[in-house]
């Protein structure tokens, strides 16, 4: 029999039960016993789903009240000394993940190139490990008691260690030996308790891993394997073909490969697999919500099956953590599009079908294969997925379309002639507070209780208020404040063709936070202008320049579930053209300053450095196509709030935005050093105050930051603005902070 399994299942629950329970516990309205009961119920339900679908092994250890990497930190008692925690219990676990009055939280980091974030272990030379059996083991007992065949998943030792932070100059590998001691104790006990398989997740193998880390693999697995249940070493998010020899030689019982991201690595592993290893092939996409082309996958699997027999296992590419729970809940989705999708629950069924097709022959699952083939075919033929006019426009793009008419020097002079801005011009990043009134109006509008005319009137009243306040504050380039936007991607997605929206397509982002990304299912185009009415209305209220506000093609792409039947770069170009039309329409309507936000530009960076240039090439091109349809006089801004781009500065400069605003206040302008060193050529607005906190900084604080910036950037190139949009703040603090920001800019101007 071919084994089918998953590397992990979404833990949040079909109705986000985990979020509800955890947040109730934080508020003090649910006690620890209640929270634990909620967790147990979800685990039992998710294991039952796996077994019910016909999977042989259930996966234990993928559950976490906050984050699975943080669970391992608790299991190993690796609390940094600053928390003063002896034995990590549930309150201590949350204290480290969320911070306390006395201690900032452990850092939160992006999980590889996903939108999931993990809690980073914090290690130092003084770190000591000890096995804390309050973690993981009760869940193992639970699963065994429920009669399941248990595969336990843990972060592999080298992955856990690699992802941890250490003080500068500290070699984390020095902790490997004590870490292995605690792993040893854990795996020995798991074996004793009757765990059938142990899955060690080692996704760091898909990164550029230094030689000494690669060399540590045999050491680790030689040490652990004899004491442990059979080990499945799981890799995902990229190819590990370069490590084939290393991996084949490890004393592990199996390897898992991500064949969705890296299908080409199959050959090297099938052709050289050692007889003692099973090969688990990730053929169902764990990162996206599309149905698997079962016929295509089977054509790949049949020869492998012939060769490996029962040594072939089937799985999803990576943990299903990154996909929503259950498609059955989507009652409002267009049934045709819905039929193209598979959420976590449906992916279990796909694995079961594939397994039966291999073991019992395709006739045994004829109906399921037929349904899959029909859905795939329907998607391929649907008029919405291939729109000739959109394809033709992308195909006709020329280099000139990605280039402004003149260079920056000429453009900025033309812009200055029109705009007449003072030295150190002040502006904001776009959004103003999303007040309770705004949210109530939108909710009423969506529920049909407020008519469109009334809703538009309510939003215009908010815009008027925002403009009046900005005029009073004396800002130089105004914004309309974005009251009409729920979210910077959804708002545009709703107005573009090719986008769909789920009701319950939640995926965990961090802790109890979930996101519900829109879905790009078809060719993207813009049927009508999206923002022109709001921006032109706002411009009628002031003589100051009104900045139009758009989300960029890359941000639209990376914060959505993207179709898998077209290269990402083609989707980016479609988005770019839709946005280009909007930019041109804004210009035509008299908007002379237009900002295209790209906070997500880094999210597309490939895991391996060698692949960066190719990505940055098409990413930059997409942005430039969106931005380049306008005259010299029209000023293009962009905004990014990632706190690191020193390593991609040439690409940032290549965007050729006239003005870039970035988040710098928390780094106290340190981020600007890179721009200065690189001699970043265009205008730049380093954020002078942190919008993540309600604190209103003193004027002198902002002045000090600006003085630092003036040492790094010529005064004529420098703008004055906050770090990011202000939608999460309240008006009183916003007005107070902006008043000081304007005063600071004016005082410096006078001195210059
Ligand atoms: N214009 C957006 C705003 O101000 C930018 C948001 C972002 O960068 N994340 O809210
Ligand atoms: Zn931002």
TrEMBL record:
Binding site for 5-methyltetrahydropteroyltri-L-glutamate: 16-19, 110, 115, 513-514, 559, 603
UniProt catalytic activity: 5-methyltetrahydropteroyltri-L-glutamate + L-homocysteine = tetrahydropteroyltri-L-glutamate + L-methionine
Catalytic activity, EC: 2.1.1.14
Domain called Cobalamin-independent methionine synthase MetE N-terminal: residue spans: 4-307
Cofactor(s) essential for the protein: Zn(2+)
Chain positions recorded as L-methionine binding sites: 429-431, 482, 597
Keyword annotations of the record: Amino-acid biosynthesis, Metal-binding, Methionine biosynthesis, Methyltransferase, Repeat, Transferase, Zinc
One biological process term in Gene Ontology: methionine biosynthetic process
Binding positions (Zn(2+) 1): 639, 641, 663, 724
InterPro entries in the cross-refs: Cbl-indep_Met_Synth_N, Cobalamin-indep_Met_synthase, Met_Synth_C/arc, UROD/MetE-like_sf
EC category name: transferase
Record-listed L-homocysteine binding positions: 429-431, 482, 597
GO molecular function: 5-methyltetrahydropteroyltriglutamate-homocysteine S-methyltransferase activity; zinc ion binding
Cofactor, free-text remark: Binds 1 zinc ion per subunit.
Pfam family, one: Meth_synt_2
Positions contributing to Zn(2+) binding: 639, 641, 663, 724
Active site: 692
Domain Cobalamin-independent methionine synthase MetE C-terminal/archaeal: 424-746
NCBIfam families: met_syn_B12ind, PRK05222.1
Its biological purpose: Catalyzes the transfer of a methyl group from 5-methyltetrahydrofolate to homocysteine resulting in methionine formation.
Family, similarity comment: Belongs to the vitamin-B12 independent methionine synthase family.
Protein name: 5-methyltetrahydropteroyltriglutamate--homocysteine methyltransferase
Organism phylogeny: Bacteria, Pseudomonadati, Pseudomonadota, Gammaproteobacteria, Nevskiales
Name of encoding gene: metE
């Amino acid at each position: 029999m071919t084994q089918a399994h998953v590397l992990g299942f979404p833990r949040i629950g079909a109705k986000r039960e985990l979020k509800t329970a955890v947040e109730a516990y934080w508020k003090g309205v649910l006690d620890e016993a209640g929270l634990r009961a909620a967790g147990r119920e979800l685990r039992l339900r998710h294991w039952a789903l796996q077994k019910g679908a016909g999977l042989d092994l259930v996966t234990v250890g993928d559950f976490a009240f906050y984050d699975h990497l943080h669970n391992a930190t608790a299991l190993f008692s690796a609390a940094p000394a600053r928390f003063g925690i002896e034995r990590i219990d549930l309150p201590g676990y949350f204290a480290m993940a969320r911070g306390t009055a006395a201690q900032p939280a452990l850092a939160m980091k992006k999980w590889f190139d996903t939108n999931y974030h993990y809690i980073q272990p914090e290690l130092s030379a003084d770190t000591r490990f000890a096995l804390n059996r309050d973690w993981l083991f009760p869940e193992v007992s639970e699963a065994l008691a429920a009669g399941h065949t248990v595969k336990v998943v843990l972060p592999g030792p080298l992955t856990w260690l690699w992802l941890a932070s250490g003080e500068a100059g500290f070699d984390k590998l020095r902790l490997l030996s004590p870490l292995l001691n605690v792993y040893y104790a854990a795996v020995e006990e798991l074996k004793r308790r009757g765990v059938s398989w142990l899955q060690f997740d080692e996704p760091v193998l898909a990164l550029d891993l230094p030689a000494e880390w690669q060399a540590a693999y045999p050491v680790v697995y030689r040490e652990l394997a004899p004491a442990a249940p059979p080990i499945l070493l799981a890799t995902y998010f990229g190819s590990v073909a370069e490590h084939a020899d290393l991996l084949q030689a490890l004393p592990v019982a199996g390897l898992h490969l991500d064949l969705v991201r890296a299908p080409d690595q199959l050959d090297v592993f099938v052709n050289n697999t050692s007889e003692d290893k099973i090969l688990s092939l990730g053929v169902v996409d764990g990162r996206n919500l599309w149905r698997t082309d079962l016929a295509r996958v089977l054509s790949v699997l049949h020869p492998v099956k012939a060769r490996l027999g029962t040594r072939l296992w089937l799985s999803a590419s990576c943990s299903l953590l990154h996909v929503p729970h259950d498609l059955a809940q989507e009652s409002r989705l267009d049934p045709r599009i819905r039929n193209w999708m598979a959420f976590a629950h449906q992916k279990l069924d796909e694995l079961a079908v594939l397994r039966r097709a291999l073991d019992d022959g395709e006739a045994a699952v004829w109906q399921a294969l037929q349904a899959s083939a029909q859905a795939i075919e329907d998607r391929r033929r649907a008029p919405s997925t291939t729109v000739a006019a959109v394809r033709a426009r992308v195909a006709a793009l020329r280099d000139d379309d990605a280039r402004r008419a003149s260079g920056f020097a000429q453009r900025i002079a033309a812009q200055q002639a029109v705009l007449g801005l003072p030295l150190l011009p002040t502006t904001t990043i776009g959004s103003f507070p999303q007040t309770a009134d705004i949210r109530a109006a939108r909710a009423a509008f969506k529920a049909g209780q407020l008519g469109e005319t009334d809703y538009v009137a309510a939003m215009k009243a908010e815009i008027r208020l925002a403009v009046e306040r900005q005029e009073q504050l004396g800002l130089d380039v105004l914004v309309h404040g974005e009251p009409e936007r729920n979210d910077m991607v959804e708002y545009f997605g709703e107005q573009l063709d090719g986008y769909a929206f789920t009701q319950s397509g939640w995926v965990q982002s961090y802790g109890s936070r979930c996101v519900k990304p829109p879905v790009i299912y078809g060719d993207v185009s813009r049927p009508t202008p999206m923002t022109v009415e709001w921006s032109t209305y706002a411009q009628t209220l002031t003589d100051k320049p009104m900045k139009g506000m758009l989300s960029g093609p890359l941000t639209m792409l990376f914060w959505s579930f993207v179709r898998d039947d077209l290269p990402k770069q083609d989707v980016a170009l479609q988005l770019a053209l839709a946005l280009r039309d909007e930019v041109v329409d804004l210009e035509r309507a008299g908007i002379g300053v237009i900002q295209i936000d790209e906070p997500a530009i880094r999210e597309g960076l490939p895991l391996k450095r060698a692949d960066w240039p190719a990505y940055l090439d098409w990413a930059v091109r997409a942005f430039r196509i969106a931005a380049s349809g306008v005259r010299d006089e029209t000023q293009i801004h962009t905004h990014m709030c990632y706190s690191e781009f020193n390593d991609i500065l040439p690409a940032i400069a290549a965007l050729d935005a006239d003005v870039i605003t970035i988040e710098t206040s928390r780094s106290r302008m340190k981020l600007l050093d890179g721009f200065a060193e690189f001699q970043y050529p265009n205008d730049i607005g380093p954020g002078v105050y942190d919008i993540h906190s309600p604190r209103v900084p003193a004027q002198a604080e902002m002045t000090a930051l600006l003085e630092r910036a003036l040492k790094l950037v010529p005064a004529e190139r420098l703008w004055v603005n906050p770090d990011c949009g202000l939608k999460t703040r309240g008006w009183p603090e916003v007005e107070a902070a902006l008043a000081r920001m304007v005063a600071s800019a004016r005082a410096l101007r006078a001195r210059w």
